[in-house]
Amino acid sequence: VYLIDWKPPTAADKYVSFDDYVNCYIDDCVNTVLKKTKVDKLTLHGYCMGATMSTMYTTLHQEKVRNLAVIAPVVDTEKDTTVIGNLAKNMDVNKMVNIIGNLPAEQLYACYSALKPFKQGVNKYFNLVQNIDNDQFVGNFLRIEKWLYDTPPIAGETFRQWIGDIYQKNLFVKNELKLGSELIDLSRIKVPLLNIVADEDHLVSPQCSAPLNDVVSSTDKRLMRFHTGHVGLIASLYSQNNVLPKVGQWLKARSQ
Fold first, then answer.
1. Is 120 domain-assigned?
2. Phi and psi (nearest 5°) for 228?
């Protein structure tokens, strides 16, 4: 298993776009893994924005992808029912990027926390105090906190496209999004697809993610739904006990 470690964008990366991330950075990583492991194809797995970028990559470089597994991808934003989706659709993203450049990590975390102020700001610490003698609870709490506070900034031009082209214009699911001179056409995808969503996701609603299965041309495709939230899909005991084992079974059956 190889993990892409995204370095925080600097001021010099303000103009880095999805084209750079998908056709340069991800493609370089894929080529390196293929060369090192001496295989022709690999399974691409992404979460949230990474899931959307993994899907973009697969439409353009399908000859290098064996399977596509995505968790909570942003796909059809017209069907998104979250507060964050509503904020994105009413944001003057051009003015924001022109003024601040890259979107700071602190601003992202503050926005996410404000969506559930009592649960994220008060209740979770009450729960910690009540379970302070439970080593497993405390360990899991600290791991999730570390993961939450490790949110990287977003390159300015990438954020402009994320909000303007995907959330506000919904170009991704309409097959009208361009990366450089190349059009993203989701119907090109024919590889096995696993799409994982959370019924209680308050950042990317399942109604936003699920349409991916309807627009791809894959004959082997599956939608898995879990009774948890956005973070719970990947960073929780629930994920370890319920989500990841099923993902592993799906991948094992298609990776021989």
1. no
2. -155, -170
| pLDDT of 78 | 96
Q: What does residue 178 show for φ and ψ, rounded to 5 degrees?
A: -115, 135
Active-site annotation, residues: 48
| Sign of the CA dihedral with 127 first, then 131, 132, and 136 last | negative
Question: What is the radius of gyration, based on Cα positions, of the chain?
Answer: 18
Domain presence at residue 128: no
Residue with tokens 């991330």: 21
> Residue 38 has what pLDDT?
97
Which residues face 226 on adjacent strands?
A: 198
Q: How far is 168 from 14, CA to CA, in rounded Å?
A: 21
Q: What's the structural domain count of the chain?
A: 1
pLDDT at 107: 84
- Angle, nearest 10°, between helix axes 105-115 and 135-149? 130
Which domain range does residue 87 map to? Answer: 11-103+153-253
Alpha-carbon distance of 41 to 220, in angstroms, equals 17
Which CATH number do you get for residue 62?
A: 3.40.50.1820
Residues 6+ apart with CB under 8 A from 162: 18, 49, 154
- Weakly modelled stretches of the chain, pLDDT under 70: none
Q: Report if residue 122 sits inside a domain.
A: no
Is 109 inside any structural domain? no
CB-count burial class (<10 Å; 0-12, 13-18, 19+) for 103: buried
- What is the four-CA torsion angle of 13, 181, 177, 173, rounded to 10 degrees? -120
